[in-house]
């Protein structure tokens, strides 16, 4: 009887030892897999220069640095300049601008910044390598506009600001009227890698919802006829969100390999055409909607008062526009163009290009810069 007990004990110990070895090997494999797809391992961004000047406002060196990422294409460079100027003048915080460009724009941008009142800001210019998008995007002949590589820069935030735990991303067609510190301090729920402004309950959408079609829920961006989309079990009526302004928890972003997930859906769309055929918005929105489905926090709606560029007419009262923390000209009518609404509000923050390469388009020549 005792001999049988000894055998049982030996078998149990052997089984425990086997399970420990198996668990150790599994952990090693999991670590390897994480390293294989880790967001921090992606290459394709080259810092071009760094200007560590002290802003005109007195900045406390003990303040936490606020990384603000803005993409700046050559044809919209005036928009990025105005956005940066509005941010800088409405805060006393320690802001570091990460300006993402393509090769040919860096010199122009540098000349503009150094030749204006923005020469004292702290910034870093980062070149975006378009090879990152190979196999992940394709031109759609049904869409009138060509692919704009810089719109995908927001997918690569941990690589753009590798040492930061948190960052703000915003499009170049915005003006900030509040203190950027308030947006940066947006609380994110545990496990959430980003906070966006949702389309259904935002202050701006309630004004323009009738003209937005389905561009305020998931069915407006994704093709629910496709089996791969249906298998995700995402409700088609789910409120979409606007990715033109958001706050990111980069620690959580890297932990969840958000960049890798976004690239996965970009590739699948190229292969299977998963985005809605009536998609009117940016092609960056659908993969973000999938990856962040019911897994994102929200920002104050007044920090993304949008649709200012959806028509040439004025949709909001002057009081509402003045109260907004951030104004967003998403849509076809940009404030540096001929027929944009509230262009006078935007133009207060615009700084003329000292090189003369960029100029505003206005109806009357006497207003032209």
From TrEMBL:
CDD domains: GT8_like_1 (cd06429). Keywords: Glycoprotein, Glycosyltransferase, Membrane, Signal-anchor, Transferase, Transmembrane, Transmembrane helix. Pfam families: Glyco_transf_8. It comes from the Eukaryota. GO terms for cellular component: Golgi apparatus; membrane. One of its GO terms (molecular function) is UDP-glycosyltransferase activity. It is a single-pass type II membrane protein. InterPro entries: Glyco_trans_8, Glycosyltrans_8_dom-fam, Nucleotide-diphossugar_trans. It is found in: Membrane. SUPFAM superfamilies: Nucleotide-diphospho-sugar transferases. Belongs to the glycosyltransferase 8 family. PANTHER family: GLYCOSYLTRANSFERASE 8 DOMAIN-CONTAINING PROTEIN, GLYCOSYLTRANSFERASE 8 DOMAIN-CONTAINING PROTEIN 1. This is Glycosyltransferase 8 domain-containing protein 1. It comes from Leptonychotes weddellii (Weddell seal).
């Amino acid at each position: 009887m005792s001999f049988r007990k000894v055998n049982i004990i030996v078998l149990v110990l052997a089984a425990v030892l086997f399970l420990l070895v198996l668990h150790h090997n599994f952990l090693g494999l999991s670590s390897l897999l994480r390293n294989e797809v880790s967001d921090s391992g992606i290459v394709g961004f080259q810092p071009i220069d760094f200007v560590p000047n002290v802003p005109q406002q007195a900045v406390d060196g003990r303040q936490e640095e606020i990384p603000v990422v803005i993409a700046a294409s050559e044809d919209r460079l005036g928009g990025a300049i105005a956005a940066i100027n509005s941010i800088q003048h409405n805060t006393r915080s320690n802001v570091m601008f990460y300006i993402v460009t393509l090769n040919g724009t860096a010199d122009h941008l540098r000349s503009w910044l150094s030749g204006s009142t923005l020469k004292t800001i702290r910034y870093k210019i980062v070149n975006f390598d378009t090879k990152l998008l190979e196999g992940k995007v394709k031109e759609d002949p049904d869409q009138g506009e060509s692919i704009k590589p810089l719109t995908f820069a927001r997918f690569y935030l941990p690589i753009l600001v590798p040492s930061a735990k948190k960052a703000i991303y915003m499009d170049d067609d915005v003006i900030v009227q509040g203190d950027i510190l308030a947006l940066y301090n947006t609380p994110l729920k545990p496990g959430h890698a980003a906070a966006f402004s949702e389309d259904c309950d935002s202050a701006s959408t309630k004004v323009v919802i009738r003209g937005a079609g389905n561009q305020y829920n998931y069915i407006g961006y994704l093709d629910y006829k496709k089996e791969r989309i249906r298998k995700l079990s995402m409700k088609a009526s789910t409120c979409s969100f606007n990715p033109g302004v958001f706050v990111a928890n980069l620690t959580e972003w890297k932990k969840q390999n958000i960049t890798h997930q976004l690239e996965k859906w970009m590739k699948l769309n190229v292969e299977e055409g998963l985005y809605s055929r009536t998609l009117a918005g940016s092609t960056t929105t659908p993969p973000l909607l999938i990856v962040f489905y019911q897994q994102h926090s929200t920002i104050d709606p007044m920090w993304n008062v949008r649709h200012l560029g959806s028509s040439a007419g004025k949709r909001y009262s002057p009081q509402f526009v003045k109260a907004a923390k951030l104004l967003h000209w998403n849509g076809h009518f940009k404030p540096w163009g001929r027929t944009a609404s509230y262009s006078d509000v935007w133009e207060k923050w615009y700084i003329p290009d000292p090189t003369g390469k960029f100029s505003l388009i206005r109806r009357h020549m006497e207003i032209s810069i």
